Each structure stands twice: as C-alpha cells, then as structure tokens.
## 1
Amino acid sequence: MNWEKLTHDQINERVKQALSENMSYKTKKILGVPASYLDEEQFYDDAPFLEESPFLATLIANPNHIGCHTLSDESEPFFKGTQQLEKELISICAEEIFAGDQGQQDGYVAPGGTEANIQALWIYRNYFMREHGAGLNEIALVYSQDSHYSMPKGGNLLHLKSIVLEVDEHSRAIKPDAFEHQLQEARAAGIRYFIVVMNLSTTMFGSVDDIDLVTAILYKNDINFKLHVDGAFGGFIYPFTCPESSYTFRNPAISSFTLDGHKMLQSPYGTGIFLTRKGLMQYALTEEAAYVKGKDYTICGSRSGANAISIWMILRTHGSDGLKVRMQHLADKAGNLCDRLGKAGVEFFRNPYINIITIKAEYITKEIAAKYSLVPDQHDHPSWYKIVMMHHVKQGVLDNFMIDLKATLHTNAN
Ligand SMILES: Cc1ncc(COP(=O)(O)O)c(C=O)c1O
C-alpha cells in the first residue's frame, strides 16, 4: 500500500484545476440542465476563505457526479474535472487499499454504506437472472445475524429470500456446521444461486467474518455464489492494521466491497464507496437513463461531486503512511482499554484489528451507559454495550470511564 501525501497547497491547486475543467454555471452558457450554483444569497462565492477551502469551493460550484465514471470516458462532460478526482480516489481504494490490479475495478461514491451494500445485491441479483436465467425464488441472500440492517432492507427491496447465519454468542463467529446445514436446506428448497455478504467488521461487535472458512464451505458444496464484502465499518481501518488479510481483490472469491468515508476517514456524510471488479457494474445499468450522457449505473442518480472531493482530499492529506499511523493509533487505544477491562474482570468482545469494544451489559449500569453515551445492541433489553474508539475519544474520558466502571463493580460486588 503506497500512495503519496500532498501538501495543503498542492491539494488546493489540484482541486482548483479540476474545478476549472468543469463547466461553470457562472461563466459558461448552460441552458439544458435543471441545476445551478448554490443559492448566491446564502452561499456567496466571493467569501475570502473559499480561496483556501477546496471542499467548500467545490460544494458551492455544485458539480453533479451522476453515473459511474470509471466505466468509460463517456460520462457527463460538464463535470469531468472533479469526476477525474473521483476516479483517482476509487483507484486508490481499489488498488492501494484492496490490492486490485491496475484499472481492473469500477466504483463510485455512494450516499453511504447502505446504498453501496444494496448496489452490490442489485448487481448480483440481476447477474444471476440475466446470465443464468434465475427466477427470484432461486436466489438467496446470505449474511450473518450480526450483519448491518442494510442486508434485510436490500433483501426486502429486491425480493430476495434471506438466509441468516447464526453466530457464536461469545466469539461472534459464524457457526460452520449450521451454515453448511442451511446451505443444504436451501438447495433442497430450490435455491440455486447465493449472494453472500461477509462483514469486514460488524456494526455492533467489530467482528470480522472468517472469509476463508466460509468460502471453503461454499466451494466444498459446489455453490454458485457472488460474494460482497461489507467494509462500511472496517474497510478504512482493517487493511491498515492487518496487512496480511484475505480481504483484498487478490482473493478471487470477492467481487465487491463497501466502504464508508464518513466513519473512520472523518469525511462528511454522503461518502459511502462502492468498489467492484470490472464487468459487473453493467448489471446495474438503467438503459432508460437516456438523457444522462454515459447512462446511469447507480441507485442514487444525482450526487454531489463535493463528497468525492472530500474523500480524495483526506486520502491525499495523509497518504498511505499517515493513515496507517492514524488507524494503528485507534487500534492501540482500543487494545489498551481492553487490557484495563480484562484486569477489572469485565467481559467483552474485540477483534484485535478493529476499534470497537463490546462489553456485556451486566457490567454496565444505566447511569454509566448514559453518562458515556454507550450504544446498546438493542434499546429495550440490552445484552451488550459498545465503545467505538474514534478520533474524538480522549484518554481522560477513558480514564474516567474506568474509574466509574470500577466503582460500580466494587459496589455491586459488596
Ligand atoms: C457494517 C455496516 N454496514 C453498513 C452500514 C450502513 O452505513 P450508512 O449508515 O453509511 O448507510 C453501517 C453503518 O453503521 C455499518 O456499520
């Protein structure tokens, strides 16, 4: 993994250059599009700080990144300058972070992890229907019980039957025997095609599905599958903290990834990322998008180019080395808290490469949960509470949390 960091001035220059290659609503004759620069009363473009703020300057110029720009050079020509930076960030994610071959992946900046996940399900459903003549009742969506709710949401939208895999209560690992049994049952019930989603960290536990184990079972049972990785939580940390992993495009079982810039990368909301091997995005083509140059391959349609610029800027501000240090720091801080919890006799779950610590609810009083804004697995009857070690979580707060926690443990023990 190796991409260069740029200075603030270099970043500013690149974005300005990109904006100058876009069509400007201010200076060009643009009669045909239902869009403009942002309302000039509220978002005046002569504010002096815009000179030094490439993201805000892009927001105000308001480029639309509709479509998928990695597919060809056919996209909307109006905003080709900033679209080029989106292409660059997609290749950094696909090739540098997930070790894809150069130019062999497509992708786009989606509104969030939910859309990126559903985009994957949509592509594979259409792939099985078009290439294998599959009926809806022959395709199943497979994911663990700890998966994000975007899986049942996507299954519902796309009319896919869900197969939910059981996990072990303590290790949060998919139970292999039960999985194999469910596959065989599904086959007996007429399911012939499987869309499998692996978690590159679950939302609540930070658990990472054992993809090698799961794919070994799929191959052993001669299953016809497409596999998507939900890296919305872990996709911007795990590759940095665990460089030797099976979660890369080098793994032939994997067809696509979801990432979320608006989690670990600290980009604004609206910065999900969908990455897929070349040859698959076409299954999400909407032919009827005839007025869009290059057509549309995404769920969302119009989307702000400023979001893409924000991700590009963050990737370029830190470079691969800088992000590695930042992500390792989060993992180290999580490890340190785990050591302290362990010494206090508190039971918790943590994947050592991820920055989530999930504590059994019996150790957490309602007061502590409220005081430290801990998030439960469910609000009515919590079994677990999680701590997410983000950049804003300071050591002093963690120290106070441990003092309060130990005091309640001590009181309860007496
Ligand atoms: C594992 C996982 N997948 C998907 C999502 C959905 O992401 P978003 O809220 O950006 O749509 C989340 C959000 O927490 C997540 O943790």
Note: The longest strand covers residues 193-199.
## 2
Amino acid sequence: MGGQRLSLGLEKWRPAIYPLPVTTREQVMWAAPANGLNMKTLWTDTPYAIQRVAGLYEAGDITPDEREDLTHFIEHGWLIWRGAIEPHLIDRFAADIRSHHTHPGKFLTTRHRDGKPGLKISGGTPDRFESLFDLYVNLASARDVCLHQRIARFLTLVFDTKPVACQQLLFQRSNGHRVHQDTSVVAIEDPMLLAASWIALEDVREGSGELAFYDRSHRLPHYLFKDGSKRINFAEDDNDLYIAELDAACRRESMAYERFIARKGDVFFWTADLVHRSHPRTLPDDTSRLSCVTHYHPATTTPFWFRHHPNRHYRADFADRGSYVSAHYPLAAKQRGMIAPESAFMG
Ligand SMILES: O=C(O)CCC(=O)C(=O)O
Ligand SMILES: [Fe+2]
C-alpha cells in the first residue's frame, strides 16, 4: 500500500498535480496516489482541502451550511442531503419515467429481462424493470432534478467550475452492482475529476438493494488495472479479484460499511473514488427502487468516450446551472422534442 504523506509546500488551489513515486504494475496493484501519472484531483480530494474551506468561508464565498457540507464531503468522501429535492419535481420525473412507454423508441434501456448484456431501444409496453440511460436528454423533469439549483451550486463549489452531466442511470429497481469505485467504469480523461449524485425518487425499502458504501474509502491508494489505468477492461482484467481486493482493503482499514435507507427527495453525493455497491437484495428481484444516478465532471475535462465518439462532443447548456453530454444520443444545437438514441452500445 502506498499511503505516503504529501508535502503541503507546493499548494495550489486550482487542480492539483501530485508528483509521486513511480511504481509499476509488476510491483503492486495498489499504487501510491497518482502513481507518477500526474493525475489531477478535485481540490476537495487534496490534503489542503480543509484549509481551503476555511479560506472560502472567511472570504464570504460560502455559507455556514456550505462549509459544513464541504467539510463532510472532504473528510468522508460522501454527503447526504435529506429531502433536498422538492416533491413536485420528484413526482414529475417519476411520472415521466413510469410513462416512458408512451414514447417508444426514444429511450435506451438495459436488457435485464432477457438476461442479455448491452442496451436496447425502449418499446411501447409499460416497463418497471429495466434501467434507463441519460434521461436528461429527453426529459426536462430529469434535468430539473439532476441539475437542480442546489446540486449545481454544490458541484460548482467542488469543481471550481460548472458541472457537466456525462452519464446518467435511472434505476427502476436495484441492478445489484457489486463493490466498485466509479473511476473503474465511468472514465474521464482526468479520472479523478468525477463526482456523482444518487437521488431517491421514492422511499427506499430495506432489502431492495439499497445503496451501500464504505465511509472514507475515497482516500484508498489507487487500484491500477493491467494497462496501468484506473479503467477496468472486462476482457482483460479480473473483476472478481478487483472486487475482493477493494472490499478487503476497506475492511482492513476498518472503514464503516453504511447502507443508505433513503427517503424520497434525499440526495447522496460521492467523490470519484468512494467505494460503494448495491447492498445484496433480499426482497424479490422486481422490487421497486426508483432512483437516479448522475455522474458529473468539471467543464475543464471531457469523458474518456469522447476519444471514440467524435460525433458526440456536443455539450448542451442547462440554463446557468451546468451542461450535459451523452454518448447515447446525437445532441445538437437545436433540439425540438424528444430525440431517438443512436448508441454504439445497442445489442
Ligand atoms: O444504485 C446503486 O445501487 C449503485 C449504482 C452505482 O454504483 C452507479 O450507478 O454508479
Ligand atoms: Fe457506482
């Protein structure tokens, strides 16, 4: 394990670059932070973050509540806001989701019912089973929730710039995700410039596959896959080994395992490397757990998939709150009504 203390001498408030000793994949899978890769991190993930919070507060740039929120986010790697999203916004979004079959062909869903990988275009019969992707493209109600004024403000503080929503998953039920860090599956050019929100669109029942996480796990040394990156390649890398090692590392460090029994309108934020999962489900497979996960990066970087989808670089503004991009939809300057997905991931 790395765990080297960082010098405070070269502090800069803007994106920090950590020059750290280089280790190789042959030596360890767990690398010291940034492993000589000069990875940028969010300022909230730097060792001087708490000092900066004090500075922002003294300068009058943040409120007492924001000071508390940022401090918690920095120290724990996550933050919960109870009842933060107004019920009418949640209800409108939930109603749109429950009636998405009235717009066949306009949504992209999982294929879990058929037990298949990949994605498919949504059909014309009601469906409460599959997950839906990037709803912020076609649903104003989704944008109003995932780029809610309060969320946009908090992420703007964390990012030092406006947030860009780059990938969204609407869960109608738990997908049973196993232990992971989002940096392994939600790749950004600067892997650590990533944060996410999980928003409850209904009260969560214990046993429905509730979101669970390891407190303070965002500061584990980097886990590097075979190619030396933080991105898992399911064809090359051993996912079971990754899961086992990540879980073991959290337990070894005695990190508290928490389950989030959310209520409608609650928001959970997490920073790039927080270790989380869907807690094993004990209720039936189709138990509803209506919740929306949105991943965001600062406007100063781009998703890794930009490299492979040059026709998907359009960034749509959402008022003054932020913007969104989508790997799955052909966004363009003028969107009239709903657009149909055209995704490379369709099976
Ligand atoms: O909602 C869950 O249970 C986990 C979701 C998740 O890990 C994700 O979307 O990144
Ligand atoms: Fe995740």
Note: Residues 77-324 form a domain with the Jelly Rolls fold (CATH 2.60.120.620).
## 3
Amino acid sequence: MTRQRQLVYNIIMAAPEHRTAEEIYDLARAEMPSLARGTVYRNLGILVRDGRIRKLEMPDAPARYDRERRPHPHLICEKCGKVEDLTMPEGLLSPLTAGRAVTGYDLKLYHVCPACRAR
Ligand SMILES: [Zn+2]
Ligand SMILES: [Zn+2]
C-alpha cells in the first residue's frame, strides 16, 4: 500500500464513524498537508474495490465509508445523518430468503437520534 492509501485506510479503521469522503479528506490532510482531494477519492475507490472497506450509498447525501465489511443493517438519523451499525439477529432473514441464494443485503432504518431529539 502507498503511504497515502495507508493513511486513508487507517483513518477509516480507527473509528466506527461512517465518514464521508470529505470528512476523510480533512482528517488525512491534517496529517499529510500535501495530500490532494483526488488522491483521497481515488484511494477510497481502490480500498472499496479490494474489499478492505465498504461504501455505503446514502439517499440524497454523499456516500459514507465503513470499516465493518460483514453485511449489517444501519440506523440513520434523518436529521443529522449520523450512521450507526446494528447487529442483525441470527436467523431473522431466513424466513424471507428460504431457498434463495442471497449474496447480500442493504438495510437502512431511519430514526431521530437522541441528540437531535433533545434539540
Ligand atoms: Zn441526529
Ligand atoms: Zn456500518
């Protein structure tokens, strides 16, 4: 891995936040001021392609990047956009998928997070 790619990867692996490319770029540039935005975007694409991280497409908002590679549902605040991982209960999908060779899923649940509710 190049130093630039390693830096982008380390930022994603360091925290459970599902950051946007812009957020990752800001953090990366704090460590490597010469880093170009295009380099960060290109390396994110390569890391996704190589299966090291996952890209989470968001409706009407920039995609986010996820260090957890196993399929899992997401809980998304519809006010601030905060994304949390949920654990899929064992066997929950099997009544829906019986007999089908399901290869993955993309489940997003929406709520208003406690911080936004308190506002
Ligand atoms: Zn919120
Ligand atoms: Zn996630």
Note: The chain has two domains: 3-66, 74-118.
## 4
Amino acid sequence: MPSLNHNIKRTHSFENLYVEGKIPEDLKGTLYRVGPGLVERFGQSKHPFMADGAITAVRINESAQGACKLVESEAFLEEERMGKTLYDPDAPLLRRLYNGVTRSIKNTGNTQVLHWQGELYALMEQGKPVRFSESDLATLGTDNLGIIEGSFSAHPHRVEQLKTTFNFGINGNMIEVFALPDNGNIKILTRFKAPWIALIHDFMVTKKHVLFFIDPAKVIIWRAMLGLKDFTKYFQWDQTEGTHIIVIPLNDPESRTQITVDPFRVWHFANAYEQGDEIIIDAFRHKNIDVLTKPTQLDNDIPKPELYRFTVNPKKKTFTDETLSDVIAEFPIVNPNFIGKQHRYIWMQHYQDKNDNEGIALHDTITGHSKRWPAPEGHLCSEAIFVPKPNNKEENGWLLQLIQDSKKEKSYLAVFDAVHFEDGPVAKLWFDQPIPATFHGIFVPEGPYRT
Ligand SMILES: [Fe+2]
C-alpha cells in the first residue's frame, strides 16, 4: 500500500495525466478512490483511520485526466477557521468531552465512495455520507439521504440482480440495514440490537440474505467518549466471547438466525451466495484486531489474514470453514456483477512475502490455483478494482490499481487486462505527485452500464 506518512502535496481539479502504454478503447468511465489525505495537520500526526480524507479520481475515455481534492466537510472547515483540531484525540480535553456528550464527530470521508442515483458520496463508517461533485470533486456537504439518523457505514454492496445497494449503520446500540434501490427511495430494511457495541467494518449481501459477522471487538465507550489519545485503545478483543453469525432473509428481515462460533474477525468479505440451503461466504479471516495498530504493514508479530470459505446453513444452524489460499493478502474483490451470486475468481492485494514484492493475486476457487503480479521493487500497491467488459464472462474485464512509485515519488493508475494481469499493466496513467494511500474505491462506467 502506498506510503501513509505524507500529506497530499497538491490538490487540483481534473488535468491531463501522462499516459504510458495504450488505454483500452472499451475502458470508459471514472475511478474514484479515497484515503487519508492529511496524516499531519496543525503540527499533529494522525492515525490513518482518523486522518482527513482525500478523494482521487481518474477519468478515462481514450485519454486520462486526474484530480485530487480534500474532503472538506463542515467540521473540517470549522477546524480550518479555528486553526486547530476540534474533532479527534488531538482536540483539547473539554472539546473532546463536549464531542462525546453531544456525539459530535467529523466525517473524514476517508474510507469508501458511494455512487447512488447519479450522486457521489465519500464515506467513513462512523459518520453520514459527504456528497461531492462529479465535475471537480468539490465537497457539497453532509447528506443524511433523508433517513439516516445514526451512522452510514463505509462498505455498501450493490447486488446487480436486485438493482439495489445495501449498507448498514449504527444508531445507539442498534444496527440498521439500509436498502438503496437504483430507482426509488432509500429505506430501512430492518433494525436489530447488537450483542455489544461492536466494531463492524464490512458485511455481506446475497440475492436472498444479509449477513453480519459480529466479532468480540468491543468498543470501550468511556475511552471513545473521552477521545483518548490512542484511538486503537477504543477497542478491546474479548477472547471469551464468540463471533455471532447473523443471517437476515431479505424476504422476511425480522426473522434473523444467529449462530455463535469461536472468535475470529473479518475486515473484508470477497462475496457470498446461496447454494441450496447453504450460504457460501469467502472472506479474509483475521485471528483478532491486532492489525488495527498497523493497518498497512504486516509485521511478523501480527497474525496474517487468510482467505477462507465459510459455509452457513441457517436452517440447520451449522457453520463450517476451510482455508482457500495461503497467499498473504487482503482487500479481496470479485467481478461486481457477481456480488451476491456464485463467483469463481477472487482478486486481492497481496503483500510482500519472502518470494515476491507486493502486487495483485488471483485465486481460482474451482481449481484452487492462484497467480500473481508482483509490482517492481519500491512500487507500493493498493486494492484493485475490477471493471467488467460488456459481456457476462466473469474473468473478462480490466483491473485498475493505484500504485505509488516510491523512487520516482509519483503515483500511477495501472490498467491490467484481468485475464493476463500477470503480464503487467497495459497502460500506466501518471500523476505528477505521490498519492497517499487510499483504502477503497469504485469505478463508475460511462454509458449503459452506469447506474
Ligand atoms: Fe474497508
């Protein structure tokens, strides 16, 4: 993952990017990614999860234009006016107490982008969406989409067959599940009480179910309310508790099934789908939340995430798991047209190991084989985005990966043919600066595939 230890150096609207190689003729649309844009502000260094967000976009249509802007939410602008931190652990004690009592937070918008009904939003899991402009990435303001009273998480999933995007939020001790249809109003599908105030990052949706894995990463409320310096200490892994597998049928969302299993954590799911009465879920399994302290490095003392297949039968209340791959990786993706239905391929960001530099890996769930493209030495990678070609073949598409060349001190968007990605990028679209790490992103296609 690109270096986190620097701020975005220059913000700008769309401007031409230098193109090395040839942009595919059928790749047309805009990539949006977000991540921590200011890891140092007012002379204070920030945990990347707490840092103000930067949006990076690459518009592709035979040529390429790139833009970078900070997420300038109302709270961000208030801090700019006051010239000091008001909303995170670096804020003065009285302000932190005030924030805790009034539940005031700043939405940094540093985690993911949502595209819904023609609008773009920067998301952070504790806040409400921050709308921004398609034309120049300017922040347009916080938007509760009409009904969000608590938070709106940063891992929405769109199920193509249902023409609906799903997301969840936390409101007090309740988890709310939102359905955002391509046409029509957002609605709350269901609300349910979590077993404890939990750190839930991602969830999963199939054609028929919503699934949560609620693990024993408990939020220590008094620490969070006081806004203590070390943000990672707001959470405690309680090994005496299990992970709660919650299965919610879309056609009867009040009838939940819960299965409790030995504790483990999932930060990111690849996909899930039904197979008879069973639900198959592929995801990276973490032993606990230790990675929180070093989100972009995997030191030897931190347990490595492993790609797992979980099988849940809500009727029989059974749960099994198996390892799919020993590739040390995270940020799994599938072809977005396969979200909620049976997939074969999982692409992921693999980390440096004793054999290879970091890069992209692919796991074939049928053959069990994997292949990879290790980036050149000193090239720092990020999550890949899969852009389907206009046919139904799962593996046919383009892979886009924003990479920082630490020697040149510039970033480029690498474009790979997904079928032959191990041969390296067919095009590199160069920014004139190093873009700080981005966590997640989306591709919004032009034309008939645009939702
Ligand atoms: Fe994430």
Note: The chain has a mean pLDDT of 92.
